Structure formats: C-alpha cells, structure tokens
Amino acid sequence: MTTAIDWDNPTDPRPGSWQLDHVKQYVASNGSDGHDWNGTQTLLLTTVGRVSGNPVRTPLIYGEADGRYLLVASKGGAPEHPLWFRNLTAHPEVRIQVGARILQGTARTATAEERAAYWPVMVKHWPAYDEYQTKTDREIPIVVIEPIA
What we know:
There is one protein chain. The chain is α+β, with helices and mostly antiparallel strands. The protein is 27% helix and 32% strand. A hairpin with a 6-residue loop joins strand 2 and strand 3. 30% of the residues are buried.
C-alpha cells in the first residue's frame, strides 16, 4: 500500500543555508522574489526522499525546452550526484514551483542526444556548468521534467 505524499509540507534545506533563505523568500512571495536569481531563473523542486519517503524541496536553476523543464545535477562538480537527483531517480514523481505556478511532473535523466542538445541551453543560463564538468569524472546529468496535465 502506497502512502500519500504530503507535497504541501516538504522538508526545506538546512537552517542557516542560503538555500533555505532562497526557498523562504520564494514561497513567501509566491515566486515573485527568488525566481530571478543572480542573472538566471530558479524554480523549487520537490522530490520524495528515497530513504525517508518524505517530500524534500530544493531551489535550482532551470531552463525550458519543448514544454519541459530542464535541471542540471551538477553539485558544483562534486564527484557524487546531488541528493535531489538520487531522490528523483528512485521516485520520478516530482512537484515544481515556477514563479507562482505549481505543477506535478515526472522527472527523468536526459538521453545522450537530449543532453547534447540541452547542455548548451543550460550553460547559457549558468556558464559555470562547463567549469563544474571539468572538476568531475562523472558526466553531469541533465534532468527533464515533463509536467502532468
């Protein structure tokens, strides 16, 4: 039996982090404060914890292509994938908040062909992604989120 996910009460980033401040600002302003960030755009991604089963919210830079939302699982070029990526590979149902819009979606890793096409799109949003890729041996994945109508 599957337990219902309480999407409206996610765990936010750890106290004292810039990410928590960003999430609080984004939510309090219904996305008008926080969507535009450091010259790019962000959304709030809520995944289901692969261990806890609880929703977890993370602010992330995003792009768009073909009606889909794109995320880069860079973790600044760290050798391991970010927790949010590991969560959505275990449980692909996600929720995103893009500005004031809240959408359910299904997340997946981009195919090799999609990654080749979407990487330049995402580097335009955040040029440091190219640098992050040079810091790690892993291929940094791009995540494609397909909104559910």
